[in-house]
Design a protein that fits this description.
elongated; mainly alpha
Amino acid sequence: MSDAMHRPAEPLRAHETPERWPRRLLRQAGWAVWVLLAVMAALSRATFGLRCESFGCTYVGVVWVALAAIWGLVVLLGLGLLGWQRHRSVPTRLTAAAVAALLLAGAGHVAYWLA
């Protein structure tokens, strides 16, 4: 028999190790936050068109509160994902940008509401 068959395989170097699927998924998960941001922007755009007419004012308030609750959940999801990515040493630029955009949109909504 040949000597090559009995030799153990050489270990892979750090830069040659195959990337596991959770790490690949985490690396691209920032796009999910961007999709949620787009959905939030569409919902926000729809609520700006609502007008107050007697009982409709209550409806507009309920919609704004629901939108604020959904926004809070999306921000928490984004921050959780960002923390998980940092814990796993995955690049976070995409997710961090999406969370920053969510926070800016939230600040804009608060400023509009207070004005």
